[in-house]
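Exercise 4. Each item below gives a protein and its sequence. For each, produce the structure-token representation.

Item: Amino acid ABC transporter permease (Herbaspirillum robiniae).
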Amino acid sequence: MHYNWNWGIFWEMSPDGIPYIDTLLAGLKWTLATAVCAWIMALVLGTIFGTLRTTTKPWVVRIANGYVELFRNIPLLVQMFLWYFVMPELMPGSIGDWLKSLPDASFITATLALGFFTSSRVAVQVTTGIQALPRGQRMAGAALGLTPTQTYRYVLLPMAFRIIIPALTNEFAAIIKNSSVALTIGLVELTAATYSMREFTFQTFEALTGATIIYIVISVIALFLARLLEKVTAVPGYISSGSTSAGGH
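Answer:
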């Protein structure tokens, strides 16, 4: 099969009146916006539910475990469809119609789905980090007169997060990749922009290569920043330099 290579396609005009490279960069902006917003949501919820899983109240632990199992075991694609197609129908008529008419409905839906899905994974990491700490740290907090909430805030969580930075780096890299699922609900992020370029130009290899390079650059930058953060916050005996790159997903 003869394939006509054309690496100059990135600077040719798309049907939108802009170069295809700008189409990819516009998709990149939506990818990063979705990933960052979902990551903030995941970090907050994951910290809360991950901490609750280590408390001494059984009913609280059961609720937190239920949250984690619910959002971790339902495939992300299914969650996207549930949030986008089903949730508005379950709302009162006026609210459902308003949700469906939002100009950025696909972005909001993707953020929520990614945020809840990733928060369940972050919760597991937070729980693991807290449980990896010596019991003496919790006891020392109590000996100092700290309340359980203060012990978590000032003693346990700061140390736990230092331990799980490599794992959180993997989750952040995953949330960037998982944002590509949002194309199924109409969000024109990087992967969707790549498919659009491929369909209009039939330059499949060039389009996919461009997207691949962009994803690699993002991953390298994220890895560099994570290693820098790891070195700054490292505590001898708990986390070793370079463990970010060794962590698997």
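Check: The radius of gyration is 22 Å.
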